[in-house]
Design goal:
Blueprint (H helix, E strand, L loop, with lengths): L6 H17 L12 H9 L18 H13 L6 H15 L2 H12 L5 E4 L2 E5 L2 E6 L10 E6 L2 E6 L5 E4 L11 E8 L1 E4 L4 H34 L1 E2 L2 E2 L4 H25 L8 H27 L9 H12 L6 H9 L1
Parallel strand pairs: 1-4
Antiparallel strand pairs: 2-3, 3-7, 4-5, 5-8, 6-7, 9-10
């Protein structure tokens, strides 16, 4: 197992890191969904077509490449629909759709001209029409169409289809998450093989885990810097043994999270252990990331819970990512099953 990134992966990481540093104000990290310009630049860099198969016009990258992108987004606390839209909705259509579906939905999505939202919920597909509801569909308010997972198929429904109703909702990190209601809505159906849904949701979860690890790294670095500058009783608080112990535990937690993420990311999709590896990573990282973020807020004092510093916003982002498509406890239950 080779855990070292290739030269191409290092270039990918550094390119995205520089772009995000240029486009995102450090004082506004995690203040809300990233500007549309960030999404456009990701498209221009080819990042949105990274996972798309060769025959659909993409680069057919490995999960490790998606992990690198997501970790950099997390490091900048850049709130984008990369995991749901690209690793989920676009990838499903690109790998399992026909030529017409790829041309209609995938090509404009990877160019940044169209947004797809991934939806799951209490829905049924009868005679090519979707019935039911999907709760807390992230980015649905900004999406042009929805890719709804139902049994052994995905159904693509345009936002302007008669019978589609959105009930507004918002999550702690500022992203929109409406509930979608479908009243016999016709859609573009994509047949899925038996293991496709589990593998696809695992890939989305890998994106979430990588984002959490990136955010952990930023919160840790900012807390270390703060401990060096903040003074109490005539000395920097970083010289106090109790603070040093907290920082040491945060560092260990971060490195353990990064290690289990690497183990999950290097497994090729479709491999027997891919889904299990991702859930193992989610089970540990979701818990560790929240603990590190809470320590970062506590060490920053009262300002840590305000919107003035990125640590509070980073905590809210992690709280959301740790619970999407299941919490750490749900991941452990899946592993046990």
């Amino acid at each position: 197992m080779n855990l070292q990134p290739s030269d191409e992966q290092i270039l990918l990481r550094d390119t995205i890191r520089r772009m995000l540093a240029d486009r995102i104000d450090p004082t506004a990290m995690g203040a809300g969904p990233s500007p549309q310009q960030v999404w456009r630049e990701l498209a221009d860099l080819g990042v949105l077509s990274l996972m798309v198969p060769d025959e659909a016009g993409g680069m057919d990258a490995a999960p490790q490449d998606a992990m690198i992108v997501a970790e950099e987004l997390g490091r900048a606390i850049a709130i984008t629909p990369f995991a749901e839209a690209i690793l989920g909705a676009v990838d499903i259509v690109a790998r399992h759709g026909d030529a017409a579906q790829i041309a209609r939905w995938v090509a404009p999505a990877v160019a940044g001209d169209l947004k797809l939202a991934l939806a799951t919920g209490d829905v049924a597909l009868r005679e090519g029409k979707i019935h039911g509801a999907c709760a807390f569909v992230r980015w649905a308010a900004d999406a042009d169409a929805f890719v709804i997972l139902v049994d052994d198929a995905a159904c693509i429904v345009s936002r302007d289809t008669p019978g589609v109703t959105l009930v507004a909702g918002r999550l702690a990190d500022g992203t929109s998450a409406p509930t979608l209601h479908f009243d016999a809505c016709p859609g573009d159906v994509v047949a899925l093989p038996a293991p496709a849904v589990a593998e696809q949701l695992a890939l989305v979860q890998l994106g979430y885990v990588a984002e959490m690890v990136g955010t952990m790294a930023t919160l840790f670095e900012q807390t270390v810097d703060y401990a060096k500058d903040r003074r109490q009783f005539g000395a920097a608080i970083g010289t106090f043994q109790v603070v040093q112990h907290k920082l040491a535990r945060m560092y260990v937690s971060l490195e353990q999270a990064r290690s289990i993420l690497l183990k999950a990311g290097v497994a090729p999709r479709g491999a027997p252990g891919f889904v299990r590896g991702v859930y193992a990573a989610k089970a540990y990282v979701a818990h560790a990331a929240q603990g590190l973020a809470e320590e970062a807020v506590q060490l920053h004092g009262g300002m840590g819970v305000t919107d003035e510093l990125p640590v509070g916003r980073g905590l809210r982002r992690i709280l959301v990512l740790a619970r999407l498509y299941g919490s750490a406890e749900d991941a452990r239950s899946n592993l046990a099953a």
